[in-house]
Write a structure and sequence with these properties.
TIM Barrel; Non-ribosomal Peptide Synthetase Peptidyl Carrier Protein, Chain A; 2 domains; 14 helices; 11 strands; 46% helix
Length: 325
């Protein structure tokens, strides 16, 4: 897939997920074959005004490239300056959030609120496009009503402003993640544009990705929630696309992913912050595994990398012993 000057290895994309798609998770997705990884949503205001916590979200590593960094905001000059900061940080793509429907974001006239205000959306996109030379993308929803007309309107506007690709999550802003994603809206947006369109929504298994490609004609498939705890879904998508059976990750692979995620989190976030996060996030990887409940209880109080590593090792030994009996 080609997005402006950036060529990805394949059609798979990791969706931006607030508070989740940080560098350690993106590295796991990349190791699983993901073609393009996206940062979590980053405040343009926070970047421009130098918030340490916000700037830290730009942390990257060469092995995850190409990297897309997603911004949210509603002030055109601020968005342009934030995009320049993102470009200077080494990112390969700037993405602008037109899809978040969290109340806090909507109150700032950002996210899905921009789909109600095409003139403001156009000013933002024009400002950002003039500020950067790397590819520019946006991620949208169906809009505020189910027909998808707003999605097509914003998509056409974005293409006219020089946007290089558009990701479409075909649920309305009021739906959140409830109900079914209406993939026909992805098809409609694809037919209306000449730039690449990336489909998103209700892809929970490799077969879903192939069906989305076939039914909508989209150029790429973006996966978010289904990749949490199972980055190997990208390997499965690529296997299926090449006519091979998409194998589920086995217990050993899950243990290895947990260990890598822990180590990278400590490396990039520091031991104290990482271990606090790992109390819940290590549990992502054991869903459906034997003795998962015991492991979840054990990691609730971890305070050091060694403690977490020991618990992962003990859990691995326990399920190995179980399988040998």
């Amino acid at each position: 897939m080609k997005i402006g000057s950036v060529k990805t290895d394949n059609f798979t994309v990791l969706a931006p997920l607030a508070g989740i798609t940080n560098l350690p998770l993106r590295l796991l997705a990349k190791k699983a074959g993901c073609g393009l990884v996206c940062s979590e949503m980053i405040s343009a205001n926070g970047l421009v005004y130098g918030s340490d916590k916000t700037v830290q979200l730009l942390a990257s590593a060469p092995e995850e490239k190409p990297l897309s960094v997603q911004l949210f905001g509603s002030n055109p000059p601020i968005m342009a300056e934030a995009a320049r900061i993102v470009q200077d940080s080494g990112a390969d793509v700037v993405d602008i959030n037109f899809g978040c429907s969290v109340k806090k974001i909507l109150k700032s006239n950002s996210g899905s609120a921009l789909m109600k205000d095409p003139p403001l959306a156009c000013r933002i996109l024009d400002s950002v496009r003039k500020a950067i030379s790397i590819p520019l993308t946006i991620k949208i929803r169906s809009g505020w009503e189910p027909s998808g007309k707003q999605a097509i309107e914003i998509a056409r506007l974005a293409e006219g402003c020089g946007v290089d690709a558009i990701a479409v999550h075909p649920r309305t802003a009021t739906q959140g993640f409830r109900g079914e994603a209406n993939w026909s809206i992805i098809s409609s947006v694809k037919r209306a544009l000449t730039i690449p369109v990336i489909g998103n929504g209700d892809v929970t298994a490799p077969a879903d990705a192939l069906r989305m490609l076939a039914e909508t004609g989209c150029d790429g498939v973006m996966v978010g929630r289904a990749a949490i705890g199972n980055p190997m879904i990208f390997a499965g998508m690529l296997a299926a696309a090449n006519g091979r059976p998409p194998a589920l990750p086995n217990d050993s692979q899950r243990i290895l992913m947990m260990t890598a995620y822990l180590q990278d989190s400590v490396r990039y976030l520091g031991e104290k912050v990482a271990c606090r996060m790992m109390r819940s996030r290590l549990c992502w990887f054991v869903k459906g595994m034997r003795n998962a409940g015991q492991f979840r209880n054990a990691v609730r109080y971890i305070a050091s990398e060694k403690e977490a590593t020991d618990l992962i090792r003990q859990y691995a030994e326990s399920i190995s012993a179980w399988s040998e009996n």
